[in-house]
C-alpha cells in the first residue's frame, strides 16, 4: 500500500465503528501502523493541519450518520434515544478512537516515536512546556471526539432539547421508555478486557454446564423412556415498550445518563458559543430535575448530599 493511500483505507475501516453492532475487521495494532504512516507523510509535507482536519472530517461523517437516525423521532422519545446513543458513543466509539489514534495522541504530547518533544512542539506550534498541559494544549484525541459529537449531534437539536428540559415534570421524558435500553446497559463502557464481562461469563458458564455432554448414552437411555414427550424450549418474549411512572428507577437512570452526557461535553471547555449552549442545557436539566416535587417516602432522584461539618476537638463541649 502506498503511503498516500493509507488514510483512505483507514477511514473506510473506521467508519464501520459508527454502525451499531459492527466490529473492526482488522487488528488495532495494524490500524496504529496506518496512523503512523499517515503521520510520517504529513510530517514530510510539514502539514500538521492535515492530520487534525482528516480526523475531524472522519468524525464529522460518522456522527452525521448517527444523527440521521434521530430524525423523525418524536419529542417524547428523543431523550431515551439520545441516552442509548450516548452509551454507544461513550462506551464504544470513544475508546476505539482513542485506541486507534494512540500514535497521534502521543505525538500531540511529544511522547511519540516519530518526533522528539522539541520537534513536536515546533510541528504543532505549541510551546514545549504546554505539550502535556490539557488546559493549554487542545490537541487531544478524546477532546476532538467529544467536540465532534457535541457539535454534530447534541447541538443540532439544541432548541428541541432546551424545550424538553424546561417543561416539568418530565412528562415528555418518561412517556415511553424502552426497558431494554435503560436496563440492559448496552453498550457498556468496556473495561480492560471487554470480552470477559462478568454477566456474559456467568451466562456462558451456565450454558456450557447445562449443555455438557458428560452424561453417557446408557445413563441417558435409562433416565428418559422412549414414550417421554420431548421437552419444549422456553419462549422468552422480546422486551416491550412500557409506560413507566414519573418517579420510576428507569426514568432516574435515563435522566442520570443524560446529565452524564451533558456534563462530560461541558468539560471540554471550548470557550465559545457552543460551550455556552451546552452549559445552558446542563443547567436547565439540573434545575428541572432537582426542582421537581417529591412526596412521601419517594426520594428517587439525583440530589446533593448534605455534608455534615467536621467539629474540631476544641469545639466539642465537654459535659
Protein model, in words:
The protein has helices at residues 6-14, 28-44, 48-68, 75-100, 102-108, 117-124, 141-154, 158-165, 179-184, 198-210, 217-223, 249-266, 273-290; strands at residues 177-178, 241-242. Helices cover 54% and strands 1% of the residues. It contains 13 helices and two strands, in the order ααααααααβαααβαα. By secondary structure, it is an all-alpha fold.
Q: Keyphrases for this structure?
A:
319 residues; mainly alpha; 13 helices
Short description:
The chain is mainly α.
Order of helices and strands: HHHHHHHHEHHHEHH
Radius of gyration: 26 Å
Largest sheet composition: 2 strands, antiparallel
- Overall shape: it is globular
According to DSSP, the number of beta strands is 2
Summed up, the helix count is 13
Could you report the average pLDDT, rounded to the nearest whole number?
Answer: 75
Major β-sheet strand ordering:
1-2
Calculate the terminal CA-CA distance, rounded to whole Å.
Answer: 84 Å
Bin the strand percentage.
Answer: under 5%
Uncertain regions spanning at least 5 consecutive residues = 174-238, 240-246, 302-307
How does the helix and strand content classify structurally? mainly alpha
Helix content: 40-55%
